[in-house]
Amino acid sequence: AGLLYLHVGAGGWRVAEDTGDATLYAVSCGSATECWAVGSAIEHYVADSGWSVDRARLPAGGVLNGIACPTTSTCWAVGVVQPRGASRPLIEGYVGGIWMTAAAPTSSGGSVSATLNSVTCINPADCWAVGGTAKQGASTTDPVIAHYSGGAWSIVDSSQVGGSGGALSAVACVNAEDCWAVGPGANRSSPLIEHYSGGTWTTAISPLVGQPGGTLNAVACAGVYDCWAVGSSGVGDTTQPVIERYSTAGWALASNPHVSVAGGGELMGVACAGQADCWAVGDLPGVAVTLPQGSAGAAGSTAPSTQPLIEHYSGGAWAIEAGTTSTNGGALIGISCSSTTACWAVGGALIETTSS
């Protein structure tokens, strides 16, 4: 899996330089000139020197799924360590120029494995992380929510969900008293949406209820009554991107361009630089075809069937961004915008390497 970076500026999106062979799942920018990206490695971007890779930071079997940098000197990253047996949450903190592993909270009730998928910070001392946990003897998962306050992480009570419960894939906060978390619901029959308000988490109703295969993968808020959640719906070989918007009337499906390519598409990440400027990223699904490195486009080569998908909200409507395909294909999973003209999106591309 090779890295796939894309950056938007005055000249539009472009593929940036690959700096490693890790897949990245999330990115966060403390400013327009400094960002961190995480996945199977930790990568650091500084405008004057570009991207660099820190491979030694993660423990064996460790993967980071989400990152939040409330300042250029403070970041939190969350994920999972998967040794033999049960998986356990992984939390890494960046303070004072050093990454350090933090004590991860454990849930009660006989949980044997847990994963953290996303993290957001209101400020360096107030953060939320979400994911899923499996109980002893159960084949299904339940949501898990952790809070960083008072210098430590702890599990908090989430809304009771019937059935398999599902899991939470992403979290975003408007302020310290108003947060949203989304993810796949029970048996992926409808998305799960939870809201933090008044000091408690409660379940909200998604307009995708009853639609087969409906799921939400990411959420971003530009205001108290202005949030976006993205994902997909559909079963079998065809899915379609889904976008939901939260307003004073609650959550509702937003008008979204139809993807006409075979297999459809899905959205995995969303970020807003303002109420009138948001970006969503994902991929056009298919069975990706590996290419010999450097041979993309050569005579007789087969183009990858999975390509990045980027959508832009501007002028009151969503539109698919043209000209964002890659010769090596790939998918975009996470995105961060520090301004309307400075965004980074990260993910992975399949590249076949050869050795002599």
Description:
The structure is a single chain. The chain is mainly beta. It is built from no helices and 31 strands. The strands form eight sheets. Strands 1, 2, 3, 29 and 30 form a five-stranded antiparallel sheet that branches. A four-stranded antiparallel sheet has the order 4-5-6-7, with no helix packed on it. A four-stranded antiparallel sheet has the order 8-9-10-11, with no helix packed on it.
SSE topology:
Blueprint lengths: L1 E2 L2 E4 L2 E4 L8 E8 L2 E6 L2 E5 L3 E5 L7 E10 L2 E8 L6 E8 L2 E4 L9 E13 L2 E10 L5 E9 L2 E5 L13 E6 L2 E7 L6 E7 L2 E5 L10 E9 L2 E8 L6 E8 L2 E4 L12 E9 L2 E8 L6 E2 L14 E8 L2 E4 L10 E9 L2 E8 L1 E2 L4
What tags apply to this protein structure?
5-stranded antiparallel β-sheet, mainly beta, 356 residues, single chain, 4-stranded antiparallel β-sheet, globular
What is the CA-CA span between the terminal residues? 20 Å
Count of DSSP H/I helices: 0
Structural class: mainly beta
State the major sheet. Answer: 5 strands, antiparallel
Give the structure's gist in a few sentences.
With 356 residues, the protein is mostly beta strands.
